[in-house]
């Protein structure tokens, strides 16, 4: 899902007092759990979403797959379409100057082959997200789809930590003008900066350096939406802890969320530890 990739790329901002080990897979135990659950950091768009042996073993040991949203829900696409548009009849023309609108229009026409008028009521975040598959230079693969494939083969249910509506509502809380600033930047350099950032991010992910991802993003001052990190990342992480706890107490569960949610003092790992769980890297 390309929309959630934007969230991953733009929400890895957090202060961290102690570095975590280089791992994408974490074991959750203690605090009354009778069986182990696992937490896995994904990236929502990649060239190769192959699952390693540790991840496959963790999937074998668990009985439920929980992602950020329930991507198995047949109504997901319909819910997504309802939530990607701006409210109050706002259009992109309300957010940028006439010259900026013309620039963005030419950019979208070149990249997507369609007129901006057909897309101008979409939240700018999602207009930007439409271009991200172009950054890969390869057919897009998804870790979420790879995880769901295993869950289906094992006859397991797939659930979500939040609804599509809850996830998309975040982008109503972030000013549309701030979202438009990032879209305009992408249009001005025709994704050059976005590609540079993505090319820097992937080595951190591939080396399982979740703290390195955080540091890289902290140093990126070009995302206007970063000032809303508490809405994009921290609040969601906080809301997930009770849901992770509920699922893990009922059955051993495999949780797959964007890797940017794992590290930092406001990240899921340290929040789980604060809640009384033992969370260990699977190396």
TrEMBL record:
Source taxon at top rank: Bacteria
InterPro entries referenced in this protein's UniProt entry, alphabetically: TraB/PrgY/GumN_fam, YbaP-like
Name this protein carries in UniProt: TraB/GumN family protein
Native species: Psychroserpens burtonensis
